[in-house]
Design goal:
With 308 residues, the protein is mainly α. Helix content is 60%, strand content 0%. Helix 5 runs antiparallel to helix 6 (109-126) and helix 13 crosses helix 14.
């Protein structure tokens, strides 16, 4: 990993090896990357096929889709005050500035939302250099600019609730459509959520609380949940040391972006059972970006990995 990419694909590979999953079934049933091949960036609803959606509701929904609810006071306290104010003010301003022109071009909110998310997803959510183009576009055949344009030209009744996606697999690849989808536990053409998935979600929540009560000493792993960064972070001391070495380094402190005392607090909480890995990963990623692309450091060289 070069420090610029989020670790979704690394997680996928790790899960495949750890649980000996069938790669084709895993790719299809997992919610980790299947969202990038299902012809819809926002999973629009029938109610979005409207020209009268209130302005406040549009902006509120876009803010939620882009994770604004997680950018709270505790998050911004990780930065020096001047940068925290800059980041917070720009989040909402950029959403509104980029969305307003689409309201003049497209009459229906579904069109406006899908174009906004389709054009801005790589910039807003990926924050890595060209992984979207390299992996999603070049390595997953269903995702490229022509396909996205095709999707946007479809009758809107086929766009909502991934109807085209479901019909394609049900008609042309029924053996894949029969695979239970991770988010519902049911074949992709079947509506609803299976009781097994509901029970598993409750069990996963209990496991999380046990991990917090034990201050991170107890870590549960389950094939039903592949987003286990937090557990893996704590299981291997080398993982924690890697992030400590970057975020608590004097060079990071001199750069002046981060509120180091607050960063120390979140590192301590993470070691004792909290779920803040993705925040720590983003902070470390940005510091590595500064070192390799601003300061001009040569990238580190590691020995090749070996499988036991």
């Amino acid at each position: 990993n070069d420090g610029m990419t989020v670790l979704s694909e690394a997680t996928k590979v790790s899960a495949l090896l750890h649980y000996r999953e069938n790669p084709l079934e895993y790719e299809f049933m997992s919610s980790l990357t299947s969202g990038n091949v299902n012809f819809a960036s926002a999973y629009g609803k029938e109610a979005d096929i409207s020209t009268t959606v209130p302005e406040a509701r549009k902006i509120h929904q876009l803010r939620l889709i882009l994770g604004r609810q997680y950018r709270d006071a505790a998050f911004y306290s990780l930065f020096k005050p001047e940068f925290a104010r800059l980041f917070e003010s720009n989040f909402d301003r950029h959403i509104e500035e980029d969305f307003r022109p689409l309201e003049k071009q497209y009459p229906y909110y579904l069109q406006q939302k899908d174009i906004f998310l389709g054009e801005g997803r790589g910039v807003r959510l990926s924050h890595q250099y060209n992984l979207v183009r390299y992996f999603y576009h070049d390595h997953q055949a269903l995702v490229d600019d022509e396909i996205i344009d095709f999707f946007n030209r479809l009758p809107m009744k086929w766009q909502v609730e991934r109807r085209l996606y479901k019909k394609m697999f049900c008609d042309f690849a029924p053996e894949m459509a029969a695979i239970e989808y991770a988010k519902t536990g049911l074949p992709i053409g079947v509506a609803g959520i299976s009781p097994r998935v509901t029970r598993q979600k409750k069990l996963d929540r209990c496991h999380y609380y046990l991990g917090r009560i034990s201050l991170g000493r107890i870590n549960f792993y389950t094939p039903s949940n592949f987003m286990q960064h937090d557990q893996w972070y704590r299981q291997y001391p080398e993982n924690m040391q890697f992030y400590n070495d970057i975020l608590l380094d004097s060079r990071t402190e001199r750069r002046g972006f981060y509120n180091i005392p607050k960063v120390k607090v979140i590192l301590t909480k993470q070691a004792h059972g909290s779920s803040n890995y993705m925040i720590l990963s983003s902070l470390a990623t940005f510091e590595l970006f500064c070192r390799y692309f601003i300061d001009g450091d040569p990238p580190p060289i590691y020995p090749p990995l070996t499988r036991e």
